[in-house]
Specification:
314 residues; mainly alpha; two-stranded parallel sheet; 75% helix
Length: 314
C-alpha cells in the first residue's frame, strides 16, 4: 500500500495543542525569550568551534608564528580578531602573524584593555575596521592611532605600569638577541616600541622618560637590522632615534656600522667624527675604523683586478 508523504499527514493532537499554545498573545514573551536563549546557545557553540579551529591552526603553524600570536591568545576579543585576520585559512594566519604592523596593533590593543582605556566592544569594532585597510594588508604604512583614539595620556602610576610592560618585552628581546634569535628579538622590540608609541606623559618629565625609552628601542631594532644585514632599515631606525636625541653616541655608532657595510665610507666617517667629539675614547670607534680600512683595501684590489681584466682579458 502506497504511503503518502509525511507532510500530508494531519498534525497530531499534541502538535495542535503546542501550536495553539505558541500562538496565544500572552505566551509570546516566553516564546521569544526561549528563541533568544536557543539562538545565543547556538552562536556560542559556533564561536567555540571557530576558536577551537583557530587554536588548532596556531598549534599546527611553525614556532615563529606561535611565538608571534602567543601574547594575545589569552584574551577572547584578541583571539576573535586574530581569527578574522587569518580569514579562516593557514595562509592568512601566516601572512598576518608575520606582519609587524598587525603585531604592533595587537600589542597596543592589549595595553588599552589592560589600562581600561577602551571597552572590549569598542576595541573589537576598531580592530576589525582596520583589517579592511589596504595599507595594513600590504604593510606599506605604519599603524598610528586614529583621530578618534589619539595617544593615551597616562597618570604617573599608569605610566609606570605601561613602561614596566614595555620593559618586560624589551628584556625578552635582548635575551633573544644575545642568543642570536633575531626574529624573536625584533618581534619583542617592536611590541615594546608599540607601547611607547601609544602613550603620552602628563608632564615634561614623564614625556622625556617615554622618549628616552623610545630612543633605546629604536637603537635595539637598528642592532637587529644590522645583524640581519638589513642596513637600509637600520639607517631608518638610527635616523629616528637621532632625531629625538642628537647626541646619542650609540645611535651614531650603529648608523656608522650600517654606512660602512653599505660601502658609504664618507657617511661613516662623518658619523665617527661626531662620536669622537662626543666620546673620544669609545672602543667601537676604532673597530669600525679598522673595518672600514680593510673594506676600502678590498674594494681597491677588486677594482684593480676588474680593470686588469677589462684591459688584458685576464
Amino acid at each position: 500500500m502506497h504511503r503518502p508523504p509525511d507532510h500530508q499527514f494531519p498534525p497530531s493532537h499534541q502538535e495542535r495543542s503546542f501550536n495553539e499554545f505558541l500562538s496565544r498573545p500572552e505566551h509570546r514573551p516566553q516564546v521569544e525569550e526561549a528563541q533568544r536563549v536557543e539562538l545565543e546557545q547556538l552562536l556560542t557553540v559556533q564561536e567555540q568551534v571557530k576558536e577551537l579551529e583557530f587554536e588548532q591552526k596556531v598549534m599546527a603553524a611553525g614556532p615563529d608564528i606561535q611565538r608571534a600570536v602567543a601574547p594575545f591568545m589569552d584574551h577572547p576579543v584578541l583571539r576573535r580578531v586574530m581569527h578574522s585576520f587569518a580569514n579562516g585559512s593557514d595562509e592568512g594566519l601566516t601572512q598576518w602573524a608575520s606582519n609587524p604592523r598587525v603585531i604592533e596593533m595587537l600589542t597596543t590593543a592589549r595595553s588599552l584593555l589592560r589600562h581600561g582605556r577602551m571597552t572590549e566592544g569598542e576595541l573589537e569594532t576598531m580592530l576589525l575596521q582596520r583589517i579592511k585597510s589596504p595599507a595594513l594588508s600590504a604593510g606599506e604604512e605604519a599603524i598610528t592611532p586614529s583621530p578618534a583614539h589619539p595617544r593615551v595620556k597616562l597618570a604617573a602610576d599608569q605610566l609606570v605600569s605601561a613602561l614596566n610592560e614595555m620593559l618586560s618585552e624589551r628584556n625578552q628581546g635582548s635575551a633573544a638577541y644575545r642568543k642570536g634569535n633575531m626574529t624573536e628579538a625584533r618581534t619583542c622590540y617592536e611590541r615594546a616600541l608599540a607601547i611607547v608609541n601609544f602613550v603620552e606623559g602628563c608632564n615634561d618629565s614623564d614625556q622625556a622618560e617615554i622618549e628616552r625609552n623610545k630612543v633605546s628601542l629604536l637603537l635595539n631594532l637598528a642592532a637587529v637590522h644590522n645583524a640581519n644585514q638589513d642596513y637600509g632599515e637600520a639607517l631608518v631606525q638610527c635616523s629616528q632615534a637621532l632625531t629625538l636625541d642628537s647626541s646619542n653616541v650609540v645611535g651614531y655608532l650603529r648608523q656608522a656600522k650600517a654606512h660602512v657595510e653599505q660601502h658609504d665610507f664618507l657617511a661613516a666617517k662623518a658619523d665617527l667624527k661626531v662620536v669622537m667629539e662626543l666620546d673620544p675614547g669609545h672602543p667601537t670607534t676604532q673597530e669600525l675604523q679598522e673595518r672600514m680600512k680593510r673594506m676600502q683595501m678590498e674594494d681597491r684590489r677588486r677594482d684593480k683586478a676588474l680593470a686588469r681584466k677589462m684591459l688584458f682579458g685576464a
